[in-house]
Amino acid sequence: MGAEPTGGIQVRLAVETADACPVAASTGGDTIARSATWSRADEGGDVVEEFDVVGGADDADLPEDASVVFETDRAERVRFTRDQSNCICETVEQLGTPVSDVSASRGTLRLSFHATDVETIQAAVDVLDDTYGTVRIDRLARTGNGEDDDLVLVDRGRLTDRQQEVLETAMEMGYFQRPRSANATEVAERLDITPSTFAEHLASAQSKVLDSLLEGSA
User: Fold this and answer.
1) What's the predicted TM-score (pTM) here?
2) DSSP 85
3) How large a percentage of the chain has pLDDT more than 70?
4) In what helix (H) or strand (E) does residue 26 lie, and over which residues does it extend?
5) How confident is the model over 84-124, as pLDDT tens digits?
6) Where are the alpha helices (DSSP H) in the chain?
7) Which of 15, 54, 166, 179 is most exposed, with minimal Cβ within 10 Å?
C-alpha cells in the first residue's frame, strides 16, 4: 500500500557558476551535459561522477582526469573523480532534499529536487547564492492532493515597478529561454543598471514569488 499523497513542490534552480562545477564547465556553444550521477563516498573520500555529453565537448573543457566510458551516435558518457568538497548538488542535498536531475548548458548548471515546504527552497537559494553566486529559480510546480495540480497565483502588485520592468525586459530579451538569448550583463545594459543591481532585483522578485507560493499552500 502506497503512502498517502501530500502536497509538495518541484523545484529547478539554475546556478551560473561554470568555474565551480566540472559538469557545467564542460559545456559551451551547443554542448549540453545531462544525466549526471555520482557515487556516495565515505566522509573525506573521493567521489566518482558520470555525465552524458551531447554535442561533443572540447577535451580541454572536460575534467582533468575524465575518460569516456561509453559512446553512442549522439552522446558520450564521461567519468571523472572529484573530492566531496564544494559540490553544488551535494550542498543542496545537505538540506535533506535529494537532487533528482542535473543538466548544464553554456556554463549554467540546472538541478531539480522536490521540497515539502517553501523554507527549504529559500534555504537552498540562500546557501547557493552565498557560496557560488548568481542563482535563479527556473521552475516551481506545486502538487495538491495527488489528483489535481494546486495552482498558486502570484500577486503582481507585490512587485515594485522596477522589479516588474526588470522581469519583463529579461523575458523579452530571452534571459529565461533555453538556450538563453541574452545574459545578465546584456539585460542590465538595456535597463541601464549594473549586473549586480539586476541580480538584486531578480532575487527580490523570486523572494516575493516564494512568499506567494507559501501563502497559497495555507
Assistant:
1) 0.67
2) T
3) 81
4) none
5) 777 899 899 999 999 999 999 888 899 999 998 888 888 89
6) 22-25, 88-93, 118-132, 161-173, 184-191, 195-216
7) 179
Pull the grid cell for residue 175: 534571459
- 36-46 pLDDT, tens digit per residue, is 999 876 666 78
Cell numbers given for 58: 572540447
Q: Angle, nearest 10°, between helix axes 195-216 and 118-132? A: 160
Contact 152, 136 (CB under 8 A): no
Output phi, psi for 6, to 5 deg.
-130, 165
Residues in the chain: 218
The three-point CA angle 7-10-14 to 5° equals 155
* Residue carrying C-alpha cell 529565461: 176
Which among 88, 92, 110 is positioned nearest to 101, based on CA atoms?
110
**DSSP state letter for 98:** -
Grid cell 551560473 is found at 16
